[in-house]
Write a structure and sequence with these properties.
This protein is mainly alpha-helical and 185 residues long. The protein has one domain (2-169). Helix content is 43%, strand content 10%. It has six helices and five strands. The chain has helices at residues 2-42, 44-48, 80-85, 122-131, 149-152, 157-169, and strands spanning 51-54, 57-60, 90-91, 97-100, 103-106. Helix 1 (2-42) crosses helix 6 and helix 4 crosses helix 6 (157-169). The chain is globular and about 50 Å long. The N and C termini lie far apart (89 Å).
Length: 185
Amino acid sequence: MYLAALGMSVAFVACKSTPEKQTAEVSKQEKIKRGEYLVTTIGCGDCHTPKKMTPQGPVPDMERYLSGYNADNPLGEYDTTIAKSGRWVLFAGDLTAAAGPWGVSFAANLTPDGTGIGNWSLDNFRRALREGKYKGIASSRPLLPPMPWQNFAHLNDEDIESIYDYLQSIKPIKNLVPQAIPPKM
């Protein structure tokens, strides 16, 4: 009888712990799904995914999804006087680089590779979105246009964490994006 009671207790504990574990796993998956929804609707891929040119214009290169400006492609020539004027902002053909009075900025690699955000903490990610700090480092330079971090600063903690969890779950892509180029004087 003692063994039967012990067996029932073990079975009860095992059954009781299983749904909690499943709930935690589902919760993480739900956060990742929410993050995917946010990344898609906010349009992160519009700037952070290289494009392929088609007869209908640029379309996302899903093999390089969210990997930022393709470091293997040279930027190309552009009229710096137009960019410096402040009257125009120039975009690279795949929309992953922009030139303006601030110089040239490149869309970051948002994949979980070490050349992207793979070694960022959630705090780094939160600081980048809330405070506009490069790589989420407090003492770093500000994020440059066209990154609309001022809009993302209003996201709640749960949404930022969901976006972070989603980005950590996607395919890592090795792509060391160039440093920003200061304006030419």
